[in-house]
Amino acid sequence: MASTGADSAPTITLTPPDPVPVVAPAQAAGLVPIDDGKKTELDKRADAFVADLIAQDSASPEFGQRIDQLTAMGAKEISAAAGMSNRFLDRPIRAMDKDSGVGSDLAALRRTVEELDPGKKGVTTGGRKFLGIIPFGNSVKRYFDGYVSAQGHIKSILDRLASGKDELLKDNAAIDVERAKLWEAMGKLEQMIHIARTLDQKLEDAALDLDHTDPAKAKAVRESALFYTRQRTQDLLTQMAVTVQGYLALDLVKKNNVELVKGVDRASTTTVAALRTAVTVAQAMTNQRLVLGQITALNTTTANIIDSTGKMLKDNTAKIHEMAAASRIPLETLQRAFQNIYETMDSIDTFKLKALDSMKQTVTTLSSEVEKSQGYIARAQATSSTPGNAAPHPALSLDGGI
Amino acid sequence: MGSETADHAQILQAARNALAFQQQGGRRASGRSIGRRSAELKRQHALRKLMRASLAVGVILLAAIVAGFVIGGIGIGGFLLTLLAMIGAAVFFATYPRLKIPALGALNRGDVRATVGRTQLWLESQRADLPVPAARQLDAIGTRLDALGTQLAGIDPSEPAVGDVRRLIGEHLPDMVASYTRIPAHLRNETRSGKTSDAQLSEGLGKITDEIDALSRRLAEGDIDALATEARYLDYRYGNAIEDKS
């Protein structure tokens, strides 16, 4: 059996990425590392704030001002991260649309290729028998003439696929930039969460100390300072969870694109490989010189593709040539080449089906999480626009020298 | 000797006056535009005035010539009358209509870029009433507004950041200044809950300056991202960024 050449191409496997899991707020913290130096600095700030708060009379406007500052803590970080959440929800949805663009090109390619399929055309019923039955030449010649007329069409489809691939790459570049920004936002949220948790601990301790000396102040600390600190911690954690999920979703879209790019590359190379095989086979069978100028031009561009399939194509060309020339059943080689195209396209189809599924699932979870977090964000924005001392205390803001 | 000490005293006094004058903002304090956009508005206004004045002078001249032909010479009295009329018209049209300083409520109408110019004009009119440090801050805001106006040129007006710009420079900034100028001058130094009105104004203007910077950064963000994306794309397309993925 023809177990060489076009046959030996490893079957392509495109793995659809898993859908993004729901990230619970409790798990969200700690995903982005904060270095120890920064941690001690943040701890110091929290210490300073608590000392400052305890020093005030619990009924004075200054005390109230400190509480307001607690309430506004992290509002900026939350709204910055929330501003990005709309965009990362947008991405997977757009990615699903883009799939269909590449998908329709692939479908067109498949239709065109099927028309050239030697099996479908009835050119072959097995090599020798075919030669025995059909008068020499003519029908085969006509079959190979089909290539010449189809090559322009195939080339335009392959060109479209190449630009579709560029789109996907550009999409990934944009995702990289967005992810870098999200990572930064997550780092800030993480620091705010650290401050909030440290404050929680310190305020708790301070309240315990005050129980003996100044019960009224201890009560004020518990009922206002500690209460708002915990509320803010919850807000920050919720936003963090959504942001982490968005970050993961972007990765999903990116992986999806990478796989699709691989599929497109592979479909192009297998198509070109089949056409080259046809050229060789035509020469072997009918001594017909099949001139596929446009395809030859494409071939060089395809061979330059960074992907390994390009290399595979180059390596195999020599083998195909050798085999097709030597084989007594050259049409079978051609059949194999066509089979390769079909396999690639089938694997892309299955991949897309699964990828679409996980994408949809991700969009659903993400939109429900984003919706849930809207409530918290609304609270954050409401506090940041309250008149008076909405500006956070310098100790509670990340702008000051971090 | 005595006259020399008097000279010294006089020189010192002059120096003190000059210092005070410079501290008030010097010659720039009056009439100087705080931004390019308001300067442009003023220039256009002056140009229009010049046009009107020269048109009026031309008309009077023409009328005098026609009258001269009709009645056969206007005589020295007619000539003087014409001259007087021309001077009068020139003076009148050079003065009126005065450049209308937009009303506080009208700042935020129409195009955002027009709002920038109008706010600058309005701020200039308020500048004299403000204490020196605040007036300096206003100058800084003026230059920032120019930059912001340029940035706004290529931006879709439905963008949320544009709405923020509108609110900030069309409402918050003028409201801040207006509520200060409404306070009688002798009460501005009084301390209320730890702060004088002057200090509060300064603080508010500082916040607004920061916010304009932040808005400007936000407006530029799309372009900064686009550049980063483009660079990353070239990495993917012509570099080897994808190889570690496949």
In short:
The complex is a heterodimer of chains A (402) and B (246). With 402 residues, chain A is mostly helical.
Describe the protein:
- Chain A has 402 residues and is mostly helical.
- Helix content of chain A is 80%, strand content 0%.
- Chain A is built from 11 helices and no strands.
- The radius of gyration of chain A is 32 Å and the shape is rod-shaped.
- The termini of chain A are far apart.
- Chain B has 246 residues and is mainly alpha-helical.
- Chain B has a two-stranded antiparallel sheet.
- In chain B, helix 2 runs antiparallel to helix 3 and helix 6 packs antiparallel against helix 7.
- The longest helix of chain B is centred in the last third of the chain and has 42 residues.
- In chain B, 18% of the residues are buried.
- Classes of the chains: A mainly alpha (402), B mainly alpha (246).
- At the A-B interface, helix 7 and helix 8 of A face helix 7 of B.
- Structural class assignment of chain B: mainly alpha
Would you identify the regions of chain B where 5 or more consecutive residues have pLDDT less than 50? 242-246
Structural class by sheet pairing and helices of chain A: mainly alpha
Main β-sheet description of chain B: 2 strands, antiparallel
Please give the radius of gyration of chain B in angstroms: 28 Å
Helix content of chain B: over 70%
Estimate nothing, just give the exact number of structural domains of chain B. Answer: 2
Q: How many beta-strand runs of chain A?
A: 0
How is this fold's topology laid out?
The complex is a heterodimer of chains A (402) and B (246).
Chain A: H1 25-28, H2 36-55, H3 61-71, H4 75-116, H5 118-121, H6 127-133, H7 138-213, H8 215-286, H9 293-303, H10 308-326, H11 330-384
Chain B: H1 2-23, H2 36-71, H3 75-95, H4 112-127, H5 132-152, H6 160-181, E1 191-192, E2 195-196, H7 197-238
Antiparallel strand pairs in B: 1-2
Helix pairs in contact in B: 2-3, 2-4, 4-5, 4-6, 5-7, 6-7
